[in-house]
Amino acid sequence: QVQLVESGGGLVQAGGSLRLSCAASGGTLSSYYMGWFRQAPGKEREFVGTISWSSSNTYYADSVKGRFTISRDNAKNTVYLQMSSLKTEDTAVYYCAADPNIGTIRSGYGVDYWGKGTLVTVSS
To answer: Which candidate, 15, 10, 57, 67, places its Cα nearest to that of 33?
Structure first.
């Protein structure tokens, strides 16, 4: 059973940067898309972005495009979310996800694997 564990969350000032990591263990994620989602207090879960197995394709939500970058290191079974120019509205619990289907990973419904999340708080 694959497990995803996020790390790197914390408190950062608006305008700052933070890098999240998601480490996979317990199995291979060959051909899987890896994605990031977030859920702010009182709001629904939101797609942030995803990256293909080969890293040749990335997709981002409009709200983070140009500020966030997803990358992955398949040798380390790890995916990263580099967040820059952070805004207070980026405050949320960030979740890592994995699924072989691009449609599924972008919708967030029926995803094979989820992490438990890491909290990012952006202060003004």
So the answer is: 57
Question: Measured between alpha carbons, how far is 56 from 124 in angstroms, rounded to an integer?
Answer: 35
Residue 90, classed as helix, strand or coil, is helix
Spatial separation of the C-alpha atoms in residues 51 and 60, rounded to whole Å: 9
Q: Strands, E, within the chain: which ranges?
A: 3-7, 10-13, 18-25, 33-39, 46-51, 58-60, 68-73, 78-83, 92-99, 113-114, 118-123
Check residue 29 and give its pLDDT.
Answer: 83
Do 67 and 82 meet the contact criterion of CB atoms below 8 Å apart? no
The SS3 call for residue 44 is coil
**Selection from 11, 7, 2 nearest residue 20 by Cα:** 7
pLDDT tens-digit readout, 26-68: 987 888 999 999 999 999 999 999 999 999 899 999 999 999 9
CB distance 44 to 37 below 8 Å: no
